[in-house]
Amino acid sequence: MPRLRVLLLLLAVLPLLAARPARVVSQTVGTDELLLALADPAQIAALSHISRDPAFSPVAAEARGHPALRDSDAESVLSFRPDLVLAASYTRPETLALLRRAGVRLVVLERFDTLEDVYANLRTLGRELGQGARAEALVARCRARVEALASRLGGVRPVRVLSASLHPFTSGGGTTFQDLCEHAGAVNVAAEAGLRGHAATPSEKLLLWNPEVLVTDSDAARLAQLPHYRVLPAFRQGRVVVLPGPLMSSVSHHRISAYETLARALHPERFP
Question: Which of 137, 146, 165, 172 could form a disulfide with 195 if both were Cys (CB 3.0 to 4.6 A apart)?
Answer without folding.
Answer: 172
